[in-house]
Amino acid sequence: MGFASRQAADAGGEASGVPTTIRKGEALAKPNFQYQKRQRELEKKRKQEEKRLRKQERAHATAPGDAQGQASSSEVPQP
Fold first, then answer.
1. Contact at 8 Å (CB) between 48 and 42?
2. Secondary structure (DSSP) of 32-51
3. Is the residue at 11 inside a domain?
4. I need a surface site. Which of 5, 24, 27, 55 has the fewest CB within 10 A?
5. Does residue 64 lie in a domain region?
């Protein structure tokens, strides 16, 4: 059986050439949901850690400035 006739037979006689049935042993590729879920979890943890580090840096950077800023704003010079 040639390629064209086999293709027509697979297609159920249709001229489109697209098989309408799946034979036993011809499994479709399945998505690996566990891998995808693990990758999403790792990405979420990475983003949370980055956010935590940004907050920590911001807290350390503004802590000394806030103490000076509060002291100077509470001391209002009198004319």
1. no
2. -HHHHHHHHHHHHHHHHHHH
3. no
4. 24
5. no
Tell me the two tokens of residue 75: 């001391």
Count how many residues are written for the chain: 79
Tokens 């940004």, residue?
54
Q: Which tens digit of pLDDT belongs to each residue from 23-77? A: 777 778 888 999 999 999 999 999 999 999 999 999 988 876 555 555 555 555 6
Burial class (CB in 10 A: 0-12, 13-18, 19+), 5: exposed
Q: What is the dihedral of CA 6, 7, 11, 15, to 10 degrees?
A: -120
Residue 43, domain extent: 31-58
Q: Cα–Cα distance between 71 and 63 in angstroms, integer?
A: 13
Q: Is residue 11 a contact partner of residue 19, using CB atoms and an 8 Å limit?
A: yes
In a domain, 1, yes or no: no
> How many separate domains does the chain show?
1
